[in-house]
Design goal:
The complex is a heterodimer of chains A (131) and B (123).
Chain A (H helix, E strand, L loop, with lengths): L2 H10 L2 E5 L3 H13 L3 E5 L2 H10 L6 E5 H14 L4 E5 L2 H14 L9 H14 L3
Helix pairs in contact in A: 2-5, 2-6, 5-6
Chain B lengths: L12 E5 L3 H13 L3 E5 L2 H10 L3 E6 L8 H12 L4 E6 L9 E4 L4 H11 L3
Parallel strand pairs in B: 1-2, 1-3, 3-4, 4-5
Classes of the chains: A alpha/beta (131), B alpha/beta (123).
Chain lengths: 131, 123
């Protein structure tokens, strides 16, 4: 599938599952993605993500996840939700870039602000005392 | 401090602390639909991390018993000590002995929760 097709498909998806263990990173990314028009569901572990995927009635089309939890989830997604797109991001910087890419393809079709600013703010928050 | 771009709404910012993911999802979704900006935390430590970096939290809605411990009580004590201006509502099947603005007993209706939040925030 080419990039245009992927973006077109994602644009139709308004519900996104964000899987991130670190609360400061998760909250920042979630607010960013909501400001792009996504409906964002938040999970702090692979177990929570699986609970949402299995037990909620949400039509989740995209999962944005930190790498470690994402790998745990990827096998289940391939077997049970092959149409769900899994986007993995190993660091807050990569997560911010991935979120910006999703915003470009998302319901509003634009980024609210530079992803570097988002990553910078996440780093600052983490340095300030986020666990 | 939070960048202005991230603080998406003019409505009060709520911090919801709940370890049961489906309850958290349901409550937070409902409150966002009602116009609040809602931050989610799954335990007391995550909630304190959020409070440490955000100066815009008006109200904390917290469960008391999380992951088998009375984490909510510890959280309330820390909020009272370090963030006395923040309003606290407990949502639990347990009785709270700490001073809070309001309590709601599980199970509860979301409409009842909304009414209590609005009352506590004078909305």
């Amino acid at each position: 599938m080419n990039n245009a097709a992927i973006r077109s498909e994602i644009r139709e998806a308004v519900t996104l599952l964000l899987l991130e263990q670190e609360v400061i990173v998760r909250a920042s990314l979630a607010e960013y993605l909501r400001s792009c028009g996504y409906r964002v569901l938040e999970a702090r572990s692979a177990a929570e993500a699986l609970t949402i995927l299995q037990e909620s009635s949400e039509n989740i089309r995209v999962v944005l996840s930190g790498a470690q939890n994402g790998f745990r989830l990827s096998g289940w997604l391939k077997a049970n939700r092959p149409k769900v797109k899994l986007v993995l991001a190993a660091t807050p910087e990569r997560a911010a870039q991935a979120a910006a890419g999703l915003c470009d393809a998302g319901p509003h079709g634009k980024r609210p602000y530079d992803p570097q600013l988002l990553a910078q703010k996440i780093r600052a928050h983490l340095a300030r005392g986020g666990s | 401090m939070v960048p202005a771009e991230i603080v998406s709404g003019r409505d009060p910012v709520l911090l919801v602390v709940e370890d049961e993911v489906l309850i958290r999802l349901s409550v937070c979704d409902f409150l966002r639909d009602e116009g609040f900006t809602v931050i989610e935390a799954g335990n007391a430590d995550d909630a304190l991390a959020v409070l440490n970096v955000r100066g815009d939290i008006a109200l904390v809605l917290t469960d008391l018993n999380m992951s088998g411990a009375m984490e909510g009580v510890r959280l309330i004590r820390e909020i009272r000590r370090s963030y006395p201006a923040i309003k606290v509502i407990t949502a639990s099947a347990y009785q709270v002995t700490e001073p809070v603005e309001a309590t709601i007993t599980k199970p509860y209706s979301l409409d009842r929760l909304l009414a209590i939040i609005k009352s506590v925030l004078d909305l």
